[in-house]
Amino acid sequence: MALLRKLNPFQREDVARIMFGQVTFEKYLANVEASAPTLMEASRLQAFEKSVLTHVFTNRLELFLDAQLGKGLSALQELKQRIFVTLRGLHSDAAELSRKSDQLEADLKSLLNQVDQFTGMKQKLTSYFSKRMTLEFTTFFNDLRQSIIAIINNPEHTQLFGEEIDRPESNPALQALSKKIAKILKDKVNGFTQHYLPRLGHEWHPEIQKTLAPVVDGISRQIENAVGKRLQVPLVPIELTFEPVDLETMLAQVQEEIDRLRKLRLAERTEQKLSKRPVKGLCCDSEEDYYMPINIEIRKYQVNQAEFQDYWIKRIAGIAETSERVAQDRLGKEVNKIVHQAKLALQGYADDYVKNLRHTLETHSKGLTALEQARATAQTILESCDLLLKEFADLQEYMEAR
């Protein structure tokens, strides 16, 4: 931003602290843009960025293939498993297959009703991340509080907390200090929100999914064992994946809620002044300036520095409470959504086996010709899956060698 000359005053101070140190940075604020090229070169960030982008561009095909390889293997294995189950059903007796389908549906329904596991996991995840969130919010707002106290107690602001003659408007310098503090609060809190919430999505969601994975895998294996037992077929474990919630929607909802809770109400005051009055004359009336005598009481007052500071500390505490309450509420909802996604993935996995058998039964009812054609098609697909899996394995070996 300094190189582009687009720094706002608060960003300029942050950069100056990095360039010139915490103690002396204020003396060199005007030198930030001029020093930016030197600091950027010394950091080697641009060289690092260029090397990374060059690597990504040069190896873009290999990187893309590597990213898709795992997904392709998983999809092929699942397809092969489904076709294998279909073939077993096509070679079974229709009446026996119908009975086993009903039994399997009941088995899987019972397995998917393991609510306690997900309820306990949901509470565990919410409690764990809630404590982490509280710690991060507390640390951030404690640092923010100390920054504001340091600004108020800065020697250049001490002179503002003295005696002044009463006047309609507030001390402009004190108003400016209040605006400066309010701007810092807004920028810092918004900056924290903008950095914190994406981390909630990009870092915490994978952690939540990783924690849920053993539960999902455990129930997946039970589903496969139930299918294998009823149909007397060996099934390989299939790794289920479930997509995280939409991060952009989450960010928009949180920001909207924070904005709603932080609205300020401003009131305006208007005054009327009478400056002229009519005067009766012998031949005609006229007007003259008229000033109503008013006794003006000259008062002196003092803005108490401690009370001024206490006011802002309470404001920070209020903002902190609001921000964390919104974030904690959103965390609970996100955990619920991810757990729900995991349950949907398991439900879909179980339903696919039952639908497979129901569809196979429909094929049985269509006669011997349709049954033989379906067997041939399924066998062809199964053989194609085996060939593709071998090619994927060769490709994976090639990628690992590179």
Q: Which keywords apply here?
A:
single chain; 402 residues; mainly alpha; two-stranded antiparallel sheet; two-stranded antiparallel ribbon; 4 strands; 75% helix; elongated
Topology, element by element:
Blueprint lengths: L8 H12 L11 H12 L1 H14 L1 H31 L3 H19 L2 H38 L2 H4 L4 E3 L6 H60 L15 H15 L14 E4 L6 E4 L10 E3 L2 H61 L2 H34 L1
Antiparallel strand pairs: 1-4, 2-3
Description:
- The protein is mainly alpha-helical and 402 residues long.
- The protein has a domain at 97-161 and 169-258 and 303-365.
- It is built from eleven helices and four strands; from the N terminus they run αααααααβααβββαα.
- It has a two-stranded antiparallel sheet with strand order 1-4. Strands 2-3 form a two-stranded antiparallel ribbon.
- Strand 2 (276-279) and strand 3 (286-289) form a beta hairpin.
- Helix 5 (94-112) runs antiparallel to helix 10, helix 6 packs antiparallel against helix 10 (305-365) and helix 9 (247-261) runs antiparallel to helix 10.
- It is elongated, with a radius of gyration of 36 Å.
Termini gap = 38 Å
Structural class: mainly alpha
Mean pLDDT across residues: 79
Low-confidence stretches: 261-269
Please state the overall shape, judged from the principal axes of the Cα atoms: elongated
What is the β-strand count? 4
Concise synopsis of the structure shown:
With 402 residues, this protein is mainly alpha-helical. It has eleven helices and four strands, in the order αααααααβααβββαα. α6 runs antiparallel to α10.
